[in-house]
Amino acid sequence: xxxxxxxxxxxxxxxxxxxxxxxxxxxxxxxxxxxxxxxxxxxxxxxxxxxxxxxxxxxxxxxxxxxxxxxxxxxxxxxxxxxxxxxxxxxxxxxxxxxxxxxxxxxxxxxxxxxx
Length: 116
What we know:
Blueprint: H1 4-22, H2 27-31, H3 34-52, H4 56-61, H5 67-79, H6 86-111
Helix pairs in contact: 1-3, 1-6, 3-5, 3-6
């Protein structure tokens, strides 16, 4: 079983992948590039799966992080794969993921963990 450290570290890596991949890409470029939005969707699904496995007592210590929303997004991407809203996905990548990355890095720092 993976520890909270390993799951948070996985989440940080996937956030960094999204930030590096999307960067300054416009919505039009994003929507026109299935390879890009498919990989972003997979990274978000991994983030959600990792979050799902973090113990509730640990999540409770960092309740400013939207754990339930993260897992909910994973569920939508996995179970509603045939109806992905590219606008919502793009907004998640460009707005929510950078904030989540900062939150996760702060958790790592607070816990004394190296999360890269």
